[in-house]
UniProtKB/TrEMBL annotation:
Ranges where the record places region Disordered: 985-1040
Organism domain of life: Bacteria
A Pfam family matched in the record: SLH
InterPro entries for the chain: Cell_Envelope_Struct_Comp, Cry22Aa_Ig-like, Ig-like_fold, SLH_dom
Biological source species: Paenibacillus campinasensis
Name under which the protein is recorded: SLH domain-containing protein
Residues of the SLH domain: 1043-1106, 1107-1164, 1168-1228
Length: 1228
């Protein structure tokens, strides 16, 4: 070993034995870890397709899209990976999960991990093997970034306290890796920026490759070119010149090459480089901030863009300039604007990264800073009421924008913000004084001028008037007018009827002659005056004292309806406005002449009368007009109405309200309202608001006196009394008692006493059960005083009075005992046994038991009247036969139950050897065991249960013992039969030794012991195909160091092969002596529990209560599983260790183990199952099966079934245990 280490620490060049083409490279990785001086461990393999990490089940079947392959250990403690992303630099990264491994790297290998596989011993002295050309294989402490593949190939560590070193020659696996011979490709231009080009620029493509590749064609931007190469053909390059016809965009290229006989193409660079061909100059748009006239600077906004290579430089200058100017002149743009301070031309320049140039010019001509000129004049110059002021405003630049004027002398600032009055050319004023005119051009420049006005008369004439009278009159009213004017003098005075405007008098109206005019109608009149300056004045006159019509009278009754009170007669006078001077009234129909000297003077608008008849009213107004109106009074009534005899419905007993029907008559023919009230009342009570109104009928719900009241339309009222005594609302009272409350097997008499109602009891019924009152509407049994109850339970008694009041009362009878006791028997176990059988007895009895007995044999009830033994709840039965159990309750009810015991078997099975009991073979000759047969008195042929202990090593001379044993279902063991096999040595052929295929070089296997080992010493369990195993003989001895484990040749290609081999490598499962695994054989409950306990590394100090596993080889594992809550057993005393385990039993144990290990939550909510046979899954297993399906530790079958009662096979057990271990290790 000391000679090997220095050699590995130096860089070696190791020739490949079978040199492959660069396209198919022979790469290496660790297939399994083999240590010197001893120790071996399996590993996993993963690979990347460039986008995701995937697992690899067979290193010889690497997918064609794999970029790299590496080994990976299950224990991730201290794991570190070594890789290169770009082929230029390398990286190392610690990881705790496969999810942290990058998928897009060029090569990758595991560089550190726990070399002791769970003892936290990291590796050191790492060496790596790699290849950079696919031909030569090199080794060293580092891997160059441009390697094609790499793998860890040497390290040291400590395992179980012993120094270990990787034996790479034994651990190495080779695999085929597809590698592109072109290793790099890049493209550049000779422009200022190598990533852009324009017409006339050159573009160069460079590639590096493995020597094995041969270029067959090359084109750049659609042009075929010839490539140049270096001497060793590992680097090639080609250049093209781009023209105007070259399509814009990313320059494409095509490299055609061969690798051996295979043709390939390359169209993309490996470093991401590219050249963008851009032959279009940038676009530039110039927009002024305003096209309107302005005094301010104009901002020129610039919009520039280049959709190809992008803009690199932008400048501007005053004037109309070309691109040549800006190559050395101009102002660098600090933003996207130009500020124009004066009118003139401005130019913007832009150049893109490819060198294309653009200039754009714009003329600014809207800046104006000169104020306009302004001249004013006025007309007329004589006296006038309106003067027109004219303004002549001129602006030679932007032009006049608007003109305003304002009274007084105003500054320019006054008119800013559009104050003043807008006008065009001229405006009118009506007041003397100074006026200011303002003019502003479109750029905002302004000027003002003032003018004074003195020839305006703006005071209108003054008008006053006086009517000839203001008293009421039937004659015309004369209006006298007085008009005066202070300045220019009165020109004309007019009047017109109605309220008129001044414009009306331009052509209308009547001129006032003299100083007055006359009117004959009430209404509005307008007086108009105008002075010589044209000022106008109006005055409105209202005349209201001319009366041409008389007043009128209408009469109405204050109460037109019936009444027993005086009636008020109401006057409704329509006057003419002059006022009423006289009002009178008189009884009878009278004319106006009558009232000259007769009649009663009336003050106000109404008077009252207290008798029917005709009445007349007279009025006279201040203008002398008269009017008479007549009205008749007919509805004064003081006679009381008559109340008829009331009618009661019903008039027999009732528990409802009684309807009272009442009516009344009156001389007026109309009864206006009727009321009623409880008790004896008078009419004053009702007239003061008492009582309740009704129409035709009213309801009463209490017996007693009542009063009815009637009132006619005139308000006359009368009363009448009545008595109600047929209402009964009292519920019956039901009192129940029974004939006896002592236990009895006879009927019990129930007696009912009903009372408490006003009306007599009309019906009595009873019914069994707890019933409602509605039940007895159509059902129930009538009785008188009492009835007999035959059974225990509730009874309901119903009573109803003549008034219909109903009541129920319930009573529970619980002292009738007619049911017999029931005996239940159960034997355990029910399967064949060599031990005693326990019979458990229980009794269900509604009545107290006074006698309990049992006896052996089939006996009748009469026997137990004088015979029988004492009762036992648990009876130990020693022999097969009948047992009879007997009970009797205190009422004399008897019960009998018999049970036959037939499963006690204490006879041993018998083994008969097939072939000779002593066999001799020659060294290195295959030995085949002839076998044996076995039979049992109860089980019959038990050959498939024979267990063979011992093995024959035909490679070593000596004497070997095979021991045959069998146990029947009752546990009886046959007398052991022995076969002796003697291996005689080969004839002497020298000192050569038989080859040793064992992968290690000494030491023992690490990890937990195998799941199918027993607890004794010596021998190996050899299951017989068919029904699985029932017991494991003593544990086999550890194989000698250097002995190769069996190949398990019957699992190749099996769906569970990976899991079986993984557990086999961990020594959790073993094969059979013939080199098979027999994956389809069933597994017993003891075997599965042992495998679970050892996988979890559980210890237990308690002792399980199961009587059938106390001395079993797996009792320690069963005890530990019970202590940790993984198993419970069939019952408190039976576990069934040798029974084949069903799939649902396996799921329950595995689920509880997952909870114990912390990889399944105890509080999780498992999903719904969707198997076609899910209804067959036992209720106690359903939740556990769902949890295992959710976690993917168990699956269903392809036909969408779970087969919960199907036996779990050795393959299925290996698969679920392997998934369990992987999940557990991943969680750690």
């Amino acid at each position: 070993m000391a000679m090997i280490v220095p050699l590995l620490l130096s860089t070696l060049v190791i020739p490949v034995k079978d040199q492959a083409s660069a396209f198919n490279v022979q790469a290496e990785t660790i297939g399994a870890v083999y240590y010197d001086p001893r120790g071996v461990s399996t590993v996993l393999h993963i690979y990347s397709d460039g986008t995701s990490i995937k697992s690899l089940s067979d290193i010889s079947q690497v997918p064609s899209d794999a970029r790299w392959v590496t080994f990976m250990v299950i224990y991730m403690e201290g794991a570190e990976i070594y890789y290169s992303r770009d082929g230029v630099t390398t990286e190392k990264k610690k990881i705790s999960s496969w999810n942290e491994i990058p998928a897009d790297v060029k090569w990758l290998t595991l560089s550190n991990f726990d070399g002791s596989f769970s003892e936290n011993q990291l590796i050191s002295n790492q060496q790596y093997t790699y290849s950079v050309d696919g031909v030569n294989v090199l080794s060293g402490p580092e891997v160059p970034a441009n390697a094609l593949w790499a793998t860890l190939s040497y390290y040291t560590t400590t395992w179980a306290g012993e120094g270990r070193a990787l034996n790479y020659s034994r651990s190495r696996e080779t695999y085929t890796l597809n590698v592109d011979p072109i290793r790099s490709a890049s493209i550049r231009s000779n422009g200022a920026d190598p990533t852009y080009a324009k017409a006339g620029d050159e573009v160069t493509l460079r590639i590096t490759s493995l020597p094995s590749r041969r270029l067959t064609g090359l084109s750049i931007a659609g042009q075929a070119v010839t490539a140049s190469s270096n001497a060793d053909l590992t680097e090639s390059w080609a250049t093209v010149t781009l023209g105007p016809s070259t399509p814009e965009g990313i320059i494409d290229f095509l490299v055609e090459y061969e690798d051996g006989s295979q043709g390939r193409t390359l169209t993309a660079t490996t470093d991401g480089s590219s050249v963008l061909f851009d032959n279009t100059p940038p676009s530039v748009t110039l927009t002024p901030s305003t096209s309107d006239w302005t005094q301010d600077n104009v901002i020129i906004n610039v919009q520039s863009q280049d959709l190809g290579s992008g803009i690199q430089v932008e400048k501007w200058a005053e004037g109309r300039l070309d691109a040549a100017y800006f190559r050395s002149g101009g102002n660098l743009a600090s933003g996207k604007v130009i500020t124009a301070y004066q009118n003139g031309w401005y130019t913007w320049y832009a150049k893109d990264r490819a060198g294309n140039e653009t200039v754009q010019s714009i003329e600014i001509a809207n800046i104006d800073r000169i104020a306009p000129s302004l001249n004013l004049s006025s007309s007329p110059t004589d006296w006038t009421s309106v003067v027109t002021i004219s303004a002549d405003a001129v602006d030679h630049e932007s032009g006049i924008y608007f003109t305003h004027w304002a009274p007084g002398v105003q500054p320019v600032s006054f008119f800013k913000n559009r104050r003043g009055n807008f006008f065009r050319g001229s405006f009118n004023v009506t007041s003397n004084g100074d006026y200011t005119v303002y003019a502003e051009d479109y750029a905002g420049n302004a000027a003002t001028r003032q003018i004074a006005i003195h020839n305006l008369d703006d005071i209108p004439p003054a008008i006053s008037w006086t009517p000839s009278t203001i008293e009421p009159t039937a004659k015309d009213v004369v209006i006298t007018v007085d008009v005066s004017d202070q300045e220019s003098g009165v020109d004309i005075v007019k009047w017109a009827a109605g309220q008129q405007q001044a414009s009306y008098f331009a052509t209308g109206g009547t001129e006032v002659q003299g100083a007055n005019f006359a009117v004959s109608e009430n209404g509005l009149y307008t007086i108009y005056a105008r002075d010589k300056a044209g000022n106008e004045q109006l005055e409105t006159v209202e005349i209201t004292n001319i009366y041409n019509n008389g007043s009128s009278l209408q009469l109405s009754l204050g109460n037109p309806g019936w009444t027993n009170m005086p009636v008020r007669i109401q006057l409704d006078i329509t006057g003419n406005g002059s006022g009423i001077s006289v009002q009178k009234w008189a009884y009878g129909q009278r004319d106006s002449q009558y009232f000259e000297n007769e009649g009663t003077l009336l003050a106000g608008t109404s008077f009252t009368v207290d008798s029917n008849g005709m009445y007349s009213v007279y009025i006279k107004d201040n203008a002398g007009y008269e009017d008479v109106a007549v009205i008749e009074v007919t509805r004064i009534d003081r006679e009381e109405p008559v109340i008829l005899e009331p009618i009661l419905t019903p008039d027999t007993w009732t528990n409802q309200s009684v309807e009272v029907k009442a009516d009344a008559t009156d001389n007026s023919g109309m009864v206006s309202r009727m009321k009623w009230a409880p008790g004896v009342q008078d009419d004053v009570y009702f007239q003061q608001g008492g009582g309740k109104p009704f129409q035709d009928v009213f309801l009463v719900d209490i017996n007693g006196d009542y009063t009815i009241y009637a009132e006619d339309a005139a308000g006359n009222g009368s009363v009448r009394g009545l008595k109600v005594n047929n209402i009964d609302v009292q519920l019956p009272i039901v009192h129940l008692q029974i004939s006896t409350d002592l236990p009895t097997n006879e009927n019990v008499t129930v007696m009912a006493d009903v009372y408490g109602t006003l009306s007599p009891i009309a019906a009595m019924k009873w019914a069994p059960g707890q019933r409602s009152i509605s039940y007895f509407g159509t059902q129930g049994t009538e009785f008188d005083g009492g009835f007999e109850a035959e059974l225990n339970g509730w009874y309901t008694i119903y009573a109803e009075s003549a008034a219909g009041n109903k009541q129920i009362e319930m009573i529970e009878i619980h002292n009738i005992f007619k049911d017999k006791p029931v005996i239940q028997l159960a034997a355990s176990p029910t399967v064949p046994t060599k031990d005693n059988v326990t019979v458990t007895a229980s009794v269900y009895a509604p009545n107290p038991i006074v006698d309990r007995k049992l006896a052996y044999g089939q006996l009748d009830k009469a026997y137990f009247s004088h015979g029988g033994d004492l009762w036992s709840d648990q009876l130990e039965v020693h022999d097969n036969g009948w047992i009879t159990y007997y009970v009797r309750d205190h009422a004399g009810n008897e019960a009998l139950k018999q049970l036959e015991i037939t499963n006690i078997d204490r006879e041993k099975p018998v083994i008969t050897l097939l072939g000779d009991a002593s066999i001799t073979i020659v060294q290195h000759t295959d030995f085949v065991d002839p076998g044996a047969v076995a039979s049992d008195n109860m089980d019959g042929d038990v050959t498939d249960r024979i267990q063979v202990t011992g093995q024959v090593d035909s490679s070593k001379p000596g004497q070997y013992i095979l021991q045959y044993s069998v146990t029947d279902r009752a546990g009886n063991e046959a007398e052991e039969v022995i076969r002796t096999v003697t291996v005689t040595p080969l004839p002497d052929k020298g000192d050569s030794e038989w080859p040793n295929p064992w992968p290690g070089s000494g030491g023992t296997w690490s990890g937990p012991p195998a799941a199918d080992k027993g607890e004794g010493d010596g021998g190996t369990k050899v299951p017989i195909p068919g029904k699985g195993t029932e017991e494991t003989p003593p544990e086999p001895t550890v194989p000698d160091a250097g002995k190769e484990p069996m190949a398990l040749h019957d699992i190749s290609g099996h769906w569970a092969e990976v899991a079986i081999r993984a557990l086999y490598d961990r020594e959790l499962v073993k094969g059979y002596p013939d080199g098979t695994y027999k994956p389809d054989l069933p597994v017993t409950r003891a075997e599965f529990v042992t495998l679970l306990v050892r996988s979890l590394q559980l210890d237990g100090e308690g002792k399980a209560p199961f009587t059938d596993s106390a001395d079993h080889w797996a009792s320690s594992a069963i005890n530990a599983a019970v202590e940790h809550g993984i198993v419970e057993g069939y019952s408190s005393r039976a576990f069934g260790p040798n029974d084949p385990i069903t799939r649902e039993q396996m799921a329950v144990m595995l689920s509880r183990s997952g909870q114990q290990a912390g990889i399944l939550s105890r509080d999780s909510d498992p999903g719904e199952l969707s198997f076609k046979d899910q209804s067959s899954i036992s209720a106690w297993a359903r939740e556990h099966v769902s949890a295992l399906i959710d976690s993917r530790m168990m699956n269903g079958y392809p036909n969408d079934r779970f087969l919960p009662q199907g036996y779990a096979t050795r393959a299925e057990v290996a698969a679920v245990i392997y998934r369990f271990i992987l999940t557990q290790e991943h969680r750690k």
